[in-house]
Specification:
49% of the residues lie in helices and 12% in strands. Strand 4 and strand 5 form a beta hairpin. It has 30 helices and 15 strands. With 717 residues, the chain is α/β, with parallel strands linked by helices. Helix 1 crosses helix 2, helix 11 packs parallel to helix 15 and helix 29 packs across helix 30. The protein has five domains: 102 residues, RuvA domain 2-like (Arc Repressor Mutant, subunit A); 134 residues, Orthogonal Bundle (Tex N-terminal region-like), CATH 1.10.3500; 164 residues, YqgF/RNase H-like domain (Nucleotidyltransferase, domain 5); 114 residues, Tex RuvX-like domain-like (DNA polymerase, domain 1), CATH 1.10.150.310; 81 residues, OB fold (Dihydrolipoamide Acetyltransferase, E2P), CATH 2.40.50.140. A five-stranded mixed β-sheet has the order 6-5-4-7-8, with helices on both faces. It has a five-stranded mixed β-barrel with strand order 11-12-13-15-14.
Amino acid sequence: MDINAALTAEFHLRPQQVENTVKLIDDGNTIPFIARYRKEMTGSLDDQVLRELHERLLYLRNLDEQREKVRASIEEQGALTEELAAALDAAVTLTEIEDLYRPYRPKRKTRASVAKAKGLQPLADALYAQEKGGPDPLELAAAYITEEVPAAEDALQGAKDILAEMISDDAGVRKRLRVVCMAGGELVSKAAKEEDSVYALYYDFHEPLNKIAGHRILAVNRGEREEFLKVSIRFDRDKALRIVESAHVKEGSPCTAAVREAAADAYDRLIFPSIERELRNQLTETASDAAIRVFSVNLRQLLMQPPVKGKVTLGLDPGYRTGCKCAVVDGTGKVLDTGVIYPAPPHAKLAEAKAQVKKWVTAHGVEVFAIGNGTASHETEVFAADLIKELDTGLSYMVVSEAGASVYSASKLAAEEFPEYDVSLRSAVSIARRLQDPLAELVKIDPKAIGVGQYQHDMPQAHLSEALDGVVEACVNSVGVDLNTASAPLLSRVAGINGTVAKNIVAFRQENGAFVSRAALKKVPKLGPKAFEQCAGFLRVPESKNVLDATAVHPESYAAAGALLEICGYTPEDVRRGGVADLAKRMEERGEEALAEQLGIGLPTLQDIAAELTKPGRDPRDELPPPLLRTDVMGMEDLKPGMELKGTVRNVIDFGAFVDIGVHQDGLVHISQITNRFIKHPSEVLKVGDVVTVWVLSVDVAKKRIGLTMKQPPEAK
């Protein structure tokens, strides 16, 4: 298989793009580096396309490897024909290759192998020939009576077992049945026990295989695993048998009926159970891939939420019995103070709690509260809102998702970072820092624990981890990392830097002081030339004398950047003071293509350099709308149908989106309530972090369910 040609056709790219990209990957370059600094070679492919292409490249190479293994095995058996070799060459999936290999694969003991051992293969061949005017099957079978085969009926049954396996191994029949079953079959689920559960919706459920939504497949699978559901695929057996018989049954022979019986047995016992497993695996795989894509999009949006920079923050990790753990951190994330207050039941020491928080606000100039959304969150919100009114100093608060905070606070990493604090106080620090810089804090947590997807624990964990790690890597590298403040976990997400090198960078920084240039990185143990090439452009050194060290301009392009400034009449000092606003205009006057040629770089690289020089060290997150900070709070009991509210999208899933509207429970905007136009998925309209206007549809306090709509009611217009 010409893999590059296959990728070219599949991704609708130019052959040169694919060839260059594959070579870059094979040379050990990381995806972020290729996406950012090798645009001329890839035709400016973005990181997402590059990752998909890389994944597909690995699949096709594995396919080719398996194809050659199967070819060698069949050839070793002396069974490789020109027709079979051509079929192997034409196979485009692992399933097709496995189907072709099935008749030649070493088999465990089966009914057919037992029959063959008794010498019944010739009888099976005679039956399969289905000669018109030939003898009756039992007459044929009588010649095979032995001690092991005491009766003609036994011989006939053994021969039919051989035929059933042979028919079952027909790759063409399997392929056709797979297609028609997917087109016309249904997924069916029934209750496995008389017991109410969250799966009650699926106790008598059926839906066409080619229409069923991914989240329903995952729900049904989970219900089956938890033994609440019995799940199967339903397909028209008569239709299936006609397909099998058309390939193997010849009419008009005394042996026709025996072959037809063998065909039915092949379908019922061997083919359909196998295809049912395959199709369910395929459905699950497709649903999992879609869920992982949704998770990835949500995670990207969560990580790229605008930071609340430079504000002294009080992190509040609410609790009942154990109290509310608190941590004051300065604008850089440094811990200034910690403590525990008890504003919620059973202690309800409100006066003491208020007095303590007021001390922190006064002593440290606290500007914003970050409140975790876990146990006792609502009570803590009420407490914070009351306190804000009393203080009347412009304070505000935001409820922060604390998903994964407990995982982090109990981790080895947290213990290394905050050895002086217990687990609960570490969690409060994490919550405060999540508001200040979501990306820097959330990279410390396993992406699966962050809670912005659906059925994440049911996904293929290796695939999920790979996809989510790719998202984290892409976000970290698009924002860039301050070399002198970044933690080891954050550094380890930078292209070209592994966990060991990240720790070495931090250790080098602690021993030798702050880095004064990118070039100083080369002194870090185990950070070789290749790693430097991959990571340098994503690391920022604001303290450097060279202003380019604080930008995304790669060191390999420093000469070109300097020459560009000189040609356009600027100095590096102009860049430092933000005085190159007219750079784009001056470049246009000289002609960008001519400039690129003069500088010996590609046009995309020139444009990227210019963007960095115009806004050195810019954070792409700053261009997004700021997060919604609140000063007041409501409870579910305050909500009334028709009420208009502002909220923040917390999670986007297949059937809708969950929105934080300032009460403890997130409300659900069903996909049908997002917009008046048809959409296939909520992510077409909404993303995590979006601030949206919603109206209350329904409130169920007992079940803690809030129904919301984004469609403005007529009475609200």
